[in-house]
Amino acid sequence: MNVQIHDLEFEPMLPFAEIEKRTVEIGAALTQRYRDKTPVFVGVLNGCFMFMADLVKQVPIPCQIAFMKLSSYHGGLESTRSITEDYNLKVDIEGRDIILVEDIVDTGNTLRYLVDKLKLLKPASISVCALLYKPDAMEHDIPEMEYIGFEIANKFVVGYGLDYKEQGRNFKDIYQLVK
Ligand code: IMP
Ligand code: MG
């Protein structure tokens, strides 16, 4: 069933059952890779909150959880170039293995900024785990982007943490804009 948020209509795109299945696969890969480490999952708020919660449950090894908060969309449908830092990392990541968890990579501007910023803090390694990726919108080459849930078309999506003007984050499934 379609949903309405503010002035826009969205249609079902990715049901939670598929997200869950993919999260189990990614979790297994992370568990294998980091089994001898104690990685730090760094979530990018607000969008990551559901994915991060479901993902870490699939990685039953010693690990730490931390968050950062950035904004680049500022409530609209288009990514803006300017990035605002709302909440900074509170954990010392020097020498640590970082798994950066993002809801979605669109132009890649936010991720480029984040990876560069975290590298200055001298972690042992950084890998990026993004639930969604819009390859047609991507403007950067980011080799750290190793774990991708789903490649999707260049359409605006909401649900499962993702918002349109701060609403729709609570939807269990993901919806795309009807145009
Ligand atoms: P980027 O910097 O263009 O890659 O945009 C990244 C950020 O913009 C993501 O972390 C999201 O918060 C937001 N974003 C990008 N695409 C969408 C979308 O389709 N729906 C909702 N938020 C989005
Ligand atoms: Mg985000």
Care to describe what's here?
This protein has 179 residues and is an alpha/beta fold. It has helices spanning 16-33, 49-56, 109-119; strands spanning 3-5, 8-14, 40-45, 64-71, 84-87, 97-105, 125-133, 145-151, 157-158, 174-177. The strands form two sheets. A six-stranded mixed β-sheet has the order 5-4-3-6-7-8, sandwiched between helices. A four-stranded antiparallel β-sheet has the order 1-2-10-9. The longest helix is centred in the N-terminal third of the chain and has 18 residues, at 16-33. It binds inosinic acid and magnesium ion. Inosinic acid binds next to strand 6, helix 3 and strand 9.
Low-confidence stretches: none
Portion of residues within helices: 10-25%
Rg calc:
16 Å
Distance between the first and last residues' Cα: 16 Å
The helix/strand series, from N terminus to C terminus, equals EEHEHEEEHEEEE
Main β-sheet, spatial strand arrangement: 5-4-3-6-7-8
Category by helix and strand content: alpha/beta
- Please count the beta strands (DSSP E, at least 2 residues each): 10
Largest sheet: 6 strands, mixed
Could you tell me the strand content as a percent range?
25-35%
Average pLDDT, rounded to a whole number, is 94
Give the cofactors and ligands: inosinic acid, magnesium ion
The helix count comes to 3
